[in-house]
């Protein structure tokens, strides 16, 4: 694939650790942006938290000195993206119940404390304290990369595919969009990998990629978009530039999620939007300008994502805005992931 993992742009140059995670066989690619990689809208605090957790796992892997390739959540952590453990929370508790068969949740729950490694045959497995070995018969040499610190782990697409049976569907979507956002792999590259390989969870990956979209700024925005579409709302545009709206600097004003046809926008407000006064004033000015253009913008917080009732209310309010323009009776649906992944779904396109 020739992709560059984290550290390639100097992101971790000041960590104070004597290693980075640039693949040994992959030079730093200065043309990532031109090739469609990455999204600089991701929140700095989120990336800082990932960096801290990644550094801790890198130390553990270095100290363990295992002669195996790291996989699953360990590989994702080494690559610097979210893992299923990171994304477990009140919101995903609903996703667990909605997407898993009874009795299977405990089998899929990942072990956050173990280091996960992959081997090609069952005969290679052996018991090691703090290590979980997984067998992937279809593991090929081109799925593995050696990092500059001597640690061996799966490449981004293989690492994402390796958690297909551990993660919920929402988490698979979030991690796929994170890989695109952090410049690890485009969604098209993930699709190409899935179609070319044999592994458990291939169908789940296909469904996740049919829903995943490039351009999201955080896993929270991804979660908000997907969970609203599961309630029957049309497909949202991401990071939508509102026509005619601009700051004094002439920089265009955007909303995190938009239904342009109905002039509806959504803004996910993280803690920095409340703690940073300049950011707060900027948000107020933008919302006022958009309201003057006839846009209805809804602000959403983590508290809303934690509550099914709050999300139901939000979905109904958006439906009422749409109903006022279309005359269609507003109602909340309960759709499956397969349903919202189907491009033939009526009303999927909201822009």
TrEMBL record:
SUPFAM superfamilies noted in UniProt: Restriction endonuclease-like
Annotated region described as Disordered, given as residue ranges: 89-111
Protein known as: DUF559 domain-containing protein
Source organism per UniProt: Bifidobacterium castoris
InterPro entries: Restrct_endonuc-II-like
Origin: domain of life: Bacteria
Gene3D superfamilies: VSR Endonuclease (3.40.960.10)
């Amino acid at each position: 694939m020739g992709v560059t993992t984290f550290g390639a742009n100097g992101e971790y140059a000041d960590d104070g650790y004597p290693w980075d995670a640039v693949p040994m066989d992959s030079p730093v690619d200065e043309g990532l942006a031109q090739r469609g990689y990455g999204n600089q809208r991701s929140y700095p605090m989120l990336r800082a938290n990932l960096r801290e957790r990644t550094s801790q796992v890198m130390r553990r892997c270095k100290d363990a000195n295992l002669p195996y390739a790291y996989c699953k959540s360990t590989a994702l952590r080494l690559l610097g993206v979210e893992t299923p453990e990171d994304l477990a929370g009140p919101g995903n508790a609903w996703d667990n119940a909605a997407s898993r068969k009874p009795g299977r949740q405990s089998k899929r729950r990942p072990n956050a404390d173990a280091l996960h490694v992959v081997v090609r045959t069952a005969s290679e497995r052996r018991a090691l304290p703090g290590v979980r070995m997984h067998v992937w018969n279809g593991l090929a040499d081109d799925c593995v990369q050696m990092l500059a610190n001597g640690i061996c782990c799966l490449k981004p697409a293989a690492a994402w595919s390796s958690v297909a049976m551990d993660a919920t569907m929402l988490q698979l979507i979030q991690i796929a969009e994170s890989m695109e956002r952090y410049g690890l792999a485009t969604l098209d590259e993930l699709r190409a990998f899935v179609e070319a390989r044999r592994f458990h969870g291939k169908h789940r990956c296909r469904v996740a990629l049919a829903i995943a979209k490039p351009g999201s700024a955080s896993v929270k925005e991804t979660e908000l978009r997907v969970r609203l579409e599961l309630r029957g709302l049309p497909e949202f545009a991401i990071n939508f530039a509102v026509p005619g709206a601009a700051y004094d600097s002439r920089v265009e004003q955007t909303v995190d999620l938009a239904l342009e046809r109905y002039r509806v926008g959504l803004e996910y407000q993280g803690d920095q939007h409340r703690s940073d006064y300049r950011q707060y004033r900027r948000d107020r000015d933008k919302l006022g300008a958009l309201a003057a253009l006839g846009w209805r913008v809804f602000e959403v917080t983590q508290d809303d994502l934690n509550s099914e009732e709050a999300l139901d209310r939000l979905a109904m309010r958006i439906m009422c805005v749409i109903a006022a323009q279309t005359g269609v009776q507003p109602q909340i649906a309960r759709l499956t992931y397969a349903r919202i992944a189907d491009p033939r779904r009526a009303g999927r396109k909201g822009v």
